[in-house]
What does this fold into?
Amino acid sequence: MALDIMIKKFHSRLTQKESLEIAGDDEVAVVSFLVPSLTNEDEIEACFNKLIVFIGRKKPSKLLIDFGQVKFFSSRVLGELLKVKSKLESFGARVAISAINPQLYRVFKVTSLDKIFSFYPDKESALKELKIN
It folds into this structure.
């Protein structure tokens, strides 16, 4: 049983490195999910913990979250996005979402979260807009 937990934690660490990439410059930090599905609870927790630590250390003024490769995610991702937004707003930063597929965007619309996040059709247009404003 203890070995199962250790293997699960190790797998979670490996998956985290492959699932999330954080890049950008002083103006805009870009977070890209590199997997088609965000449904594993451990993977989601690891990704968003990494993101929260990054935000706490770097305090980016603008953060772009790119979902270009994501086709499906669990509802937990919505809660984690709200935590990220709250953390950023605590020091006056803003967050935007890019390249979300239409099915996932409907989830934001149904939950009225489309009113509190800014959405862009692709990473390039989001970066252009965020760097101007």
About this structure: The first strand starts at residue 20 and ends at 24.
